[in-house]
Amino acid sequence: MNKEEYQELVLLSMYGELAEEEEKKLEKYLKANPELKREAEELLKFKKFVSANTPDVATDDGLRDARRRFRTTLRSELRTGSFFNRMNDQVKDFFSTPWKLAFGSTGVLALGMMIGYCSHPSLQVDNRMVFQPVGNEQAASRPSTEITNIRFIDSDASDGVIEFQFDAVAPMHMKGKIDDPEIQRVLSHALLNESNDGIRLQTVNAIAQQADKGKFGDVEVKKALLATVKIDPNPGVRREALRVLQQYRFDPEIRDALLFVLAKDPNSGMRVAAINALDLARIDGMTFDSSTVTALKTQIKKEENNYIRNRAANFVKEIYQ
Amino acid sequence: MSPTDSELIEQSNAGNLAAFEQLIYRYDKDVFTVASRFTQNADDAKDIYQDVLLRVYRGLPTFEGRSEFSTWLFRITTNVCLTYRSRKKKTMEIPLYGDNGDVIEDLADGMTADDLSHAGDITRRIQEAMNVLSPRQKIVFTLRHFQDQKLKDIALMMNCTEGTVKKYLFEATQKMRTHLHDLYR
Q: How many whole angstroms separate alpha carbon B181 and alpha carbon A269?
């Protein structure tokens, strides 16, 4: 073993990564080599110094903010469906290792050449695309469009080219039947993303009016309602979303949403509505599995509200009968 | 009794968002800490956190359980860190080498730890020293030194041999020592 290998052993020993036998061997070597022993001591000082002087950069506030941002993104993911994102990830993953990149590049090159050959028999090269903005640039050029949240991808202008993303917010006006898929898409978005409580309540009311007539929104609307009942900050909006969901055909998604409300909602009125909704579903002949019973038993133990506790206990009793 | 990771994964895959949140909240603090240590920038750390958890969410149906969920999660975290391009790239890349590759020795300008009276100065010096490391050296140092992850686990996360991880740790430590020797000796 040379000196550098012993130095490596010293480092590994410091991190507790050596086997007992290796430790003994190192100890023996250090006794005979004061120079390396000094280095081992210095290394220990270094380790302590770095640990003592590196503040915990991950603050609780930072984590809370990261979680909040992630929840918003996840809601958006649930809303828009993840097909394109999965495709995007798969493409990214495909190019994530060098050999894949090499094969991928060759494949893309071959495909590109073939397409180019077929579509441009004269083989003239058109470089205009290189200088065109990427994305929805037309929206940005409208005078009424508000440009926000500019994010530079490459701000280094030394090569004369920069790249950035931005949000182009343009006012839109829509009028149409409430069962129009486009209208429903906007309603779902409003339900999940609108910051104004009143607008979210109006949105859920609009959906409710249709549900009262037996007309239910598409799957996106249902997803939005399921998310709203769990995470909307306004109890009024959550309550109305729960009321609409009760008019849908009862299924495991709705059951889970109700159990979630029962377990997590801080508003006792919401929890009462949730246990009542579950009980109504039971009366309507819906069956519940053992996981529901387990969840309810847990709730019985921790619930502070007597009424909810009794209703939950009664519910469990009824299921077992 | 709280549900196991496998149970929560099963529930998440059945569309139970609450189960997914319960699952990730068991580990997300570590994800955020690694990202924060690695980037030394709160905004970048939040970007990485978001990217990692979205990948987990999208990839969960394909997770076969051949490794622990936490190992898989940290493998994704490591990959995202290594491929992440900082939004504040220029502020992160503080040049510590001269054009000929020599270390710029006058960073501390001959000051000792006593001279650097403000604790922030020492912290800044450590951050600068971290920025000298290559991304792989930095992630290994972060995971081993700050997160107390075992080398064999880091090797699993980085999909490389334990020997390679040891090499990165050794190189990282040597570089850090070179840049900080005037402060801790």
A: 63
Rounded CA-CA distance B90/B96 in Å is: 13
- Amino acid B73: pLDDT: 94
Closest residue of chain A to B129, computed from CA coordinates: A50
B185 reaches A (C-beta below 8 A): yes
Rounded-to-integer distance, Cα A42 and Cα A36, Å: 10
Of B79, B57, B75, B58, the closest CA to residue B66 belongs to: B75
Give ipTM to 2 decimals: 0.80
Cβ contacts (< 8 Å) between B43 and chain A: which residues? none
Which residues of chain A does B76 touch, with a Cβ-Cβ cutoff of 8 Å? none
Q: Give average pLDDT by consecutive 10-residue segment, chain A, 321 residues.
A: 80 90 87 87 90 80 88 77 54 56 67 64 39 50 71 71 76 78 82 82 81 71 88 88 85 90 89 87 78 86 86 82 61
State how far the Cα of B184 lies from the Cα of B18, in Å rounded to an integer.
47
Tokens of A91: 């493409």
Residue of A70, A97, A294 for testing the chain B interface, max B β-carbons within 10 Å: A70
Q: Do A58 and B170 touch (CB under 8 A)?
A: no
**Which chain B residues are closer than 8 Å to A65 by Cβ?**
46
Q: What is the pLDDT of residues B83-142, one digit of tens each?
A: 887 655 544 443 333 334 444 333 344 444 554 445 567 888 888 899 899 999 999 999
Partner-chain residue, chosen from A47, A53, A78, that has the shortest CB–CB distance to B122? A53
From the CB of residue B82, how many other CB atoms can be counted at a distance below 10 Å?
15
CATH topology of domain A181-320: Leucine-rich Repeat Variant (1.25.10)
Residue spans in chain B of domains classed CATH 1.10.1740.10 = 5-83
Write the secondary structure of A261-319 as one string of H (helix), E (strand) and C (coil).
HHHHCCCHHHHHHHHHHHHHHHHCCCCCCHHHHHHHHHHHHHCCCHHHHHHHHHHHHHH
B67 and A CB contact within 8 Å: no
Q: Which CATH class is domain B5-83?
A: mainly alpha
| Torsion, Cα of B96, B102, B108, B113 (10° steps) | 110
Candidates B22, B76, B148, B177: best to mutate against A (most CBs of A within 10 A) is B177
Q: Where in chain B are all domains bearing CATH 1.10.10.10? A: 96-184
CB contact under 8 A, A260 and B18: yes
Model pTM score: 0.49
Classify B96-184 by CATH class: mainly alpha
CA distance A125 to chain B (A): 32
Cβ proximity of A44 and A193 under 8 Å: no
